[in-house]
Design goal:
With 199 residues, this protein is of the alpha+beta class. Helices cover 17% and strands 29% of the residues.
Length: 199
């Protein structure tokens, strides 16, 4: 059931749960894979709910697998089984067209542990910098804008990529430290936004 013809063969990454493993706007290649062939450390796209999500398998036995985002503090409540609708993430194509292989198995688990350490450090750093947020006006403006065909927008400063905004409007800095030194333009109000009544 996980490999039915209605299941997508690629997806565009957005969100925070796998940030660092993937970059917003990357295109993920999704492959048909039997449940029995999955390993801990593999990354899967799960279509059991809407919107679907992409997480890593962190535990697995003969009947079910536990998934979790690399930047999440706890596993997903939904368990992956033979009857679940899913695909294996095998490649990621960047905004520059470069394709990279996505490791699974033990190499994937090593990446998961690394991302978990980074996530904990980012949480700690956000606590430390919270008192300095009033000084955000000192940050440099990342005002070089690049628009991609899928609707993703990326901002840079002097050629340095700083942040990206997905077609759904989700903005993510490409590294936590860039939030300290750069600022990006506020989202522009659309015609639809202007029609909304004020409250």
């Amino acid at each position: 059931m996980g490999n039915g013809p209605e299941t997508p063969r690629e997806a565009h990454y957005t969100g925070d749960s796998m940030h660092g493993t993937f970059v917003p706007g990357e295109t993920l290649a999704l492959a048909e894979t039997a449940f029995e062939a999955l390993q801990t450390g593999d990354i899967v796209a799960i279509f059991e709910r809407s919107p679907y999500y992409v997480h890593r398998i962190v535990e697995k036995n003969e009947t079910e697998a536990v998934t979790m985002g690399d930047n999440n503090g706890r596993p997903d409540a939904l368990r992956l089984t033979r009857d679940s609708r899913f695909r294996l993430v095998t490649e990621a194509r960047g905004l520059d067209g470069v394709v990279r292989q996505i490791p699974g198995g033990e190499a994937g688990m090593a990446q998961f542990r690394f991302q978990q350490r980074r996530w904990k450090l980012r949480r700690f750093a956000s606590i430390l910098i919270h008192p300095f947020k009033p000084l955000k006006f000192l940050r440099l403006p990342a005002n070089t804008e690049t628009r991609f065909r899928d609707g993703t927008v990326q901002w840079s400063f002097a050629g340095i990529p700083v942040a990206a905004r997905s077609p759904a409007g989700k903005t993510v800095y490409l590294h936590w430290s860039k939030r300290l030194f750069f600022r990006i333009p506020a989202p522009k109000a659309t015609n639809e936004d202007s029609k909304k009544p004020s409250v």
